[in-house]
Amino acid sequence: MIIQPRTRGFICLTSHPEGSAQNIKNQIEYVKSKGTIANGPKKVLVIGASTGFGIASRITAAFGSGAATIGVFFEKPAAEGKPGTAGWYNSAAFEKEAQAAGLYAKSINGDAFSDEVKKETIELIKKDLGQVDLIVYSLASPRRTNPRNGVSYASVLKPIDQPFTDKTVDFHTGVVSDISIQPVENKDDIENTVAVMGGEDWKFWIEDLKAAGVLAEGVKTVAYSYIGPQLTYPIYRNGTIGRAKDHLEATVPVLNNLLKDLNGVSYVSVNKALVTQSSSAIPVVPLYISLLYKVMKEKGIHEGTIEQMQRLFAERLYTGEAIATDEKGRIRVDDLEMREDVQEAVAELWGQVSTENLSQISDIQGYRDEFFNLFGFNFDGIDYEADTNEVVNVPSIEK
Ligand code: NAI
Question: pTM here?
């Protein structure tokens, strides 16, 4: 079928299989161009492995360090006349490239929050790898059912104490407007968001993996967080999602305790703000990212998810030396985003930005391009007018 982008708000409803494959190939080429990661992981489980930071982590482990990888994700498979989701096509392309390079790669498509998927993953590790030496936890989801009490939680993106008004952009139309977001009405909104995006499920995973004996001596686990600038604090770091990130970060010592007898260690890595399916859903953030990209590209320090994850592995997690962290024990790969000169320049542009000057003073075009790239669109060399086979399978997943 001919697959063109179809968008609804910040969601793209269609994805292109060949474009997604190109996206994966480009990321693999980047990682290969940076050379082998000495002391890198060898047997890796990535939870949330199909898009954004998760697929970039999987690619870095496999093609930077020759790792066998198991990826867990929640994606819609492709069917005749109905394209799959981007994460599905990404994973199909990843497995094919990994196989061609002689690397073990298998995937599980299902709800990572459930006990069933945890069990299935453990069985697969036991059968094929024995143990894993790195677990990347990269889930981003609007809801979660806790398997231990059956309660379902929905997360919200809201400020906590007072209403928040600031600029935002509709990145499709380029209209900059003010947005006011009311604060949470009760504590439930905070607790629910923490239940979805906090560290509880990460802990459940590590507990179950440990109890099953599938964690290797010296195992590492890493989950991803965000801090960002003051201007997004009310909606991000001081908002409901920030409380969830506080909880995720507070889970680190709990996991360290759990992993002590294996000489294992857990980390949160604070990553840079980037265009992903999740970040495009947060008000204000796309406008901030458009300005940030402009500044960082001009300074020659822009990075995408793959550059971030390659740097996390090669220059933080697997240097062979003690891992550098901030005063709260977090790994920082948002260091370039948070540089004073970068933040000053963004703050100045933030004061000026309007619908009229958006295309001159921001990288809104770069934002749009990357947004469509996420779904396999906008890649050179792909004929988007041509018929393409939408029924692409992930080799390790039975139909
Ligand atoms: P994303 O939306 O690109 O990826 C989410 C992944 O989670 C996908 O692989 C998806 O299939 C999987 N997933 C969602 N629900 C699932 C479920 N129930 N079961 C199994 N898999 C499920 O998101 P992104 O942006 O890569 O986020 C990953 C982490 O990075 C999050 O913790 C996010 O907060 C963090 N982060 C994101 C930043 C950004 O600017 N995008 C910045 C810093 C941190």
Answer: 0.98
